[in-house]
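Shipment paperwork, digital attachment
Item: protein structure file
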Amino acid sequence: MALALFFESVMDSAFVVPVAGCIMVLGIVVAGIWSGTRTREIQAQERLAAIARGVPLPPTVEELAIIHGKPMSDATRRRDNIRLAAIILLCGAGGLIVFFVALAVVVQVREVLCGAAAALIPLGIGVGLFIDARLQTRALDEAALEKRVGV
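Attachment content:
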């Protein structure tokens, strides 16, 4: 009986949703780490089995990158992905602001505008990513200039 009352009071708590969300995020992170570890284990077992059979090993992704003289991740592509993420975050922040302002106008409750403050998080991250993309662009331009001058 006491256990039923405990679970009933827990389920009526305002903290159920945030705690469940945190547990879900933690579970996703743990599952991702476990999946990556398991993938590496399977690849290692496959390579050991190939060595035991005397089959020549195919090169890994890292070895292929070294053979072809290409870096693992292209700096230009990485910069473009950062800029895309910044644009998405800034547009999402703008959408949140417009939503909460429109909601405040419709329900005519001024306190709803506090929800627009939630948009400051993606807004700040988006601005930071734009700054990072700009710094990467500057570094790529300087590297290209040094390469031309050095030749």
